[in-house]
């Protein structure tokens, strides 16, 4: 096959232009020649949808301390977080928020002009005693305000942008990551970005679930590319189901609604969270609230003709407070639920929202290859944001910690990748660099078989939703794997109808689907192997947490065939940087 | 299930000498069926070659601005039944070059809003803490910072169509978002850019941008405020 490939050389190339990617880019651009390649225009990345807040112990409204935030993060993770990373993130949080404010983020304010803060699930004072106001927010458009600011800042810093470029293959020479092959969606041309350091900030993958809050583009491409090159996906079984996705649509209603006083009700009008989390009730962590809601539904106390959802009531805080602090959710509930939340409750249901795990990294964002015998850094490869796992979220992510994660580790990735680029020469590309990615693209561009995107994707999301969802069993997941294998086989008899070289969405969707099936298989294999319940991973057949056997990170690698997931494990880093470790305890709220 | 006819602008530079319209019958499968649901239905079930942009599907990323029955809007926030018509004509955003089908070239649009220096400019040193801002001053940014860069406003503006260098309502809204920010000290740097002959004076105050904005923002008001600031400023 003879194809024209254009070559580019940059010190640092960031793949993905969400919050993590842009923060990495704006920092790296201050030191070295930096490019961003992104499937969509930067302001269209999924960070834009983040609503309620970003956590930091600023203590603007009441006393707070990073050590309390660190405790909440570790406890919230069900003790699967790496404690060095949890300390690093929570200690740096206040200066990161201030840095964002200084580049223009329009935070909501306290009467004395400071950044306003509100409560969020799982955030407490004095190691669990009471809820604390820790979430900084710009009304309920925090992610939107942040992403726009970071984009504008990185343009000011001279970052080179390649928008609507789809990554096909991560390039590696003798163990060193040194580039990425991309496909220009707008004109069908190929580009190889040769770099000293690559930062993956490719986001999440919840499009593998039927009811999900994610953008169309969250298809796990970065994970699939990394796994195909022999790197692992850490804690692949942990997905966060956000308690309050709009019933039927999946669009998210921020936890900030409960932070402002919203409550969940079952069909009897009962505030049921009082039974499950007597201390902090509706502000319990997301895994606990989601599971409690599903339990209410399964026990026949759900709302609606099918008794399959729950109500979120907020009208009692008053129309003025809603319009000032939650204007976006007012609009979302009107459009997607047909409910005016100033007068009536919003129908909600747990919704796939976030992948807790990701490409494993140290707390300085260097990608790790590891197992129970140890870990080593991969030269030239950094990762941050949802596609990465530092790991601070462990088995369940606290609300607002995702924006904090992407800001802190995005910045660190920018700093570290720039430093690596300054200290190291370019590693030559291998002779046939990009061969595998070109072959994959070619396979689908010329695919004239039977199966098309719609039906295969529908079947994929259906089986993941019903068999690998909030509640899981061996039987359900074994069945899911059988279905996934069949779907994978269908990709060899696939049909891409569109043959155009210009903006071929049909082709891009085929490539995404190919990645999603791999990702779904890896997640299911990991979930099947973890025979315990921890955080967001709940097994009906193993309802208890089992620290003796499973206080460890799952690492899913691919076998030599490049498609069969193999489950391995790696030790949790229990030692923080400067403080005493938090030993695992029962998790009650 | 109720069926609605979609008449969609089609053009693939790889094979079409000129653009044409193609019709599809779309089933409205649930109450509140959205234009994006309909486009996805066409793509996934009827004609995989139809191309359009979409990302967040909840009205905040601005990817999916299109022209429906002559009005610019976001496909993910527009309910088909709200259009009150069984025959819906969909075209790409006007005033921008069509790349293919409903996808337009937005490079120029993004470049233009960047030229107004849309970031906080500070002359005084920053404090260690946040720069304090009263709730009243913060309120002045409401109705300005919510812009999602979808292009619906600029693409509905005849001045934007006529003058290729005209910055357009989106850039002005963004400029005013920073000029109106009590923390900002960048007026001196921004105003000359806005005072240019392709700047705010080229607006003919016909309010198309206000009508087109899916977030109900008011770029014309921003333009008026910038003009007033220019008149009050000595260069």
UniProtKB/TrEMBL annotation, chain A:
Keywords: Electron transport, FAD, Flavoprotein, Membrane, Oxidoreductase, Transport, Tricarboxylic acid cycle. It catalyses: a quinone + succinate = fumarate + a quinol. Residues 458-589 form the Fumarate reductase/succinate dehydrogenase flavoprotein-like C-terminal domain. Pfam families: FAD_binding_2, Succ_DH_flav_C. InterPro entries: FAD-dep_OxRdtase_2_FAD-bd, FAD/NAD-bd_sf, FRD_SDH_FAD_BS, Fum_R/Succ_DH_flav-like_C_sf, Fum_Rdtase/Succ_DH_flav-like_C, SdhA/FrdA/AprA, Succ_DH/fumarate_Rdtase_cat_sf, Succ_DH_flav_su_fwd. It is a peripheral membrane protein. FAD binds at residues 16-21, 38-53, 221, 386, 402-403. It is found in: Cell inner membrane. It comes from the Bacteria. Its cofactor is FAD. PANTHER family: SUCCINATE DEHYDROGENASE 2 FLAVOPROTEIN SUBUNIT (PTHR11632), SUCCINATE DEHYDROGENASE [UBIQUINONE] FLAVOPROTEIN SUBUNIT, MITOCHONDRIAL (PTHR11632:SF51). This is Succinate dehydrogenase flavoprotein subunit. It comes from Geovibrio thiophilus. The gene is sdhA.
UniProtKB/TrEMBL annotation, chain B:
One of its GO terms (biological process) is respiratory electron transport chain. InterPro entries: 2Fe-2S_ferredoxin-like_sf (IPR036010), 2Fe-2S_ferredoxin-type (IPR001041), 4Fe4S_Fe-S-bd (IPR017896), 4Fe4S_Fe_S_CS (IPR017900), Beta-grasp_dom_sf (IPR012675), Helical_ferredxn (IPR009051), SDH/FRD_Iron-Sulfur (IPR050573), Succ_DH/fum_Rdtase_Fe-S (IPR004489). Signal peptide: none annotated. It catalyses: a menaquinone + succinate = a menaquinol + fumarate; a quinone + succinate = fumarate + a quinol. Its cofactor is [2Fe-2S] cluster; [3Fe-4S] cluster; [4Fe-4S] cluster. It comes from the Bacteria. Residues 2-96 form the 2Fe-2S ferredoxin-type domain. GO terms for molecular function: 2 iron, 2 sulfur cluster binding; 3 iron, 4 sulfur cluster binding; 4 iron, 4 sulfur cluster binding; electron transfer activity; metal ion binding; succinate dehydrogenase (quinone) activity. Belongs to the succinate dehydrogenase/fumarate reductase iron-sulfur protein family. Pathway: Carbohydrate metabolism; tricarboxylic acid cycle; fumarate from succinate (bacterial route): step 1/1. It comes from Geovibrio thiophilus. Residues 137-167 form the 4Fe-4S ferredoxin-type domain. This is Fumarate reductase iron-sulfur subunit.
């Amino acid at each position: 096959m003879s194809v024209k490939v254009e070559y580019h050389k940059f010190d640092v190339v960031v793949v993905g232009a969400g919050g993590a990617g842009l923060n990495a880019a704006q920092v790296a651009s201050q030191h070295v020649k930096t490019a961003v390649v992104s499937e969509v225009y930067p302001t269209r990345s999924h960070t834009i949808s983040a609503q309620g807040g970003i956590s930091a112990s600023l203590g603007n409204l009441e006393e707070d301390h990073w050590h309390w935030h660190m405790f909440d993060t570790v406890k919230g993770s069900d003790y699967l977080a790496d404690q060095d990373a949890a300390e690093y993130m929570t200690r740096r949080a206040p200066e990161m928020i201030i840095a964002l404010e200084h580049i223009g983020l329009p935070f909501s304010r306290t009467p004395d002009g400071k950044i306003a803060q509100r409560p969020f699930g799982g955030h407490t004072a004095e190691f669990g005693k009471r809820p604390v106001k820790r979430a900084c927010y710009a009304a309920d458009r925090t992610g939107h305000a942040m992403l726009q600011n970071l984009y504008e800042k990185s343009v000011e810093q001279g970052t080179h942008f390649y928008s609507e470029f789809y990554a096909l293959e991560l390039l590696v020479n003798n163990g060193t990551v040194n580039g990425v092959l991309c496909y220009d969606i707008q004109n069908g041309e190929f580009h190889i970005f040769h770099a000293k350091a690559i930062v993956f900030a490719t986001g999440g993958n919840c499009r593998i679930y039927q009811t999900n809050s994610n953008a169309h583009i969250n298809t796990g491409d970065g994970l699939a590319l990394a796994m195909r090159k022999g790197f692992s996906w850490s804690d692949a079984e942990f997905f966060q189901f956000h308690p309050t996705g709009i019933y039927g649509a999946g669009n998210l209603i921020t936890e900030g609604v409960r932070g402002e006083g919203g409550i969940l009700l079952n069909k009897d009008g009962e505030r049921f969270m009082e039974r499950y989390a007597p201390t902090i009730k509706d502000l319990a962590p997301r895994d606990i609230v989601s599971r409690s809601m599903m339990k209410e539904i399964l026990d026949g106390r759900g709302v609606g003709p099918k008794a399959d959802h729950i109500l979120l009531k907020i009208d009692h805080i008053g129309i003025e407070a809603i319009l000032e602090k939650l204007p976006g959710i007012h609009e979302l509930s009107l459009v997607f639920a047909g409910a005016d939340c100033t007068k009536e409750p919003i129908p909600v249901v747990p919704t796939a929202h976030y992948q807790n795990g990701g490409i494993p990294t140290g707390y300085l964002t260097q990608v790790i290859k590891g197992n129970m015998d140890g870990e080593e850094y991969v030269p030239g490869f950094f990762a941050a944001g949802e596609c990465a796992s530092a790991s601070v979220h462990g088995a369940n992510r606290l609300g607002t910690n995702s924006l904090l994660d992407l800001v802190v580790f995005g910045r660190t990735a920018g700093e570290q990748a720039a430093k690596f680029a300054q200290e190291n020469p370019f590693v030559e590309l291998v002779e046939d660099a990009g061969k595998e990615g070109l072959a994959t693209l070619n396979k689908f561009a010329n695919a004239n078989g039977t199966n098309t995107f719609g039906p295969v994707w529908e079947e994929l999301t259906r089986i993941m939703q019903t068999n690998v969802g909030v509640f899981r069993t061996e039987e359900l997941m074994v069945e899911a794997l059988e279905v996934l294998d069949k779907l994978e086989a269908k990709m060899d008899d696939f049909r891409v109808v569109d043959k155009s070289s210009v903006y071929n969405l049909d082709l891009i969707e085929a490539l995404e689907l190919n990645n999603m099936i791999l990702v779904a298989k890896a997640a299911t294999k990991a979930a099947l192997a973890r025979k315990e319940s921890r955080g967001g991973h709940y097994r009906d057949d193993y309802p208890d947490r089992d620290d003796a056997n499973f206080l460890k990170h799952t690492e899913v690698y691919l076998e030599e065939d490049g498609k069969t997931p193999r489950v391995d494990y790696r030790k949790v880093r229990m030692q923080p940087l400067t403080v005493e470790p938090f030993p695992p305890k029962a998790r009650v709220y | 299930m109720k069926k609605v006819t979609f008449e969609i602008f089609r053009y693939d530079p790889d094979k079409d000498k000129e653009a044409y319209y193609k019709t599809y019958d779309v089933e409205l499968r649930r109450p509140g069926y959205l234009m994006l649901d309909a486009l996805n239905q066409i793509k996934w079930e009827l004609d995989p070659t139809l191309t359009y942009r979409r990302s967040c599907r909840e009205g905040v990323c601005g990817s999916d601005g299109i022209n429906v029955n002559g009005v610019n809007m976001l496909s993910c926030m527009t309910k088909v039944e709200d259009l009150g018509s069984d025959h819906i004509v969909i075209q790409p955003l006007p005033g921008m070059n069509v790349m293919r089908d409903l996808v337009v070239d937005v490079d120029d649009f993004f470049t233009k809003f960047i030229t107004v220096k849309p970031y906080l400019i500070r002359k005084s040193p920053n404090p260690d803490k946040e720069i304090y801002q009263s709730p009243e001053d913060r309120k002045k940014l409401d109705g300005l910072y919510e812009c999602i860069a979808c292009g619906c406003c600029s693409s509905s503006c005849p001045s934007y169509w006529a003058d290729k260098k005209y910055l357009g309502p989106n850039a002005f809204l963004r400029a005013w978002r920073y000029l109106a920010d009590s923390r900002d000290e960048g007026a001196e740097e921004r105003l000359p850019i806005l005072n240019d002959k392709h700047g705010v004076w080229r607006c003919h105050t016909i309010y198309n941008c206000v009508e087109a904005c899916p977030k109900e923002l008011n770029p014309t008001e921003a333009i008026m405020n910038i003009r007033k600031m220019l008149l009050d400023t000595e260069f």
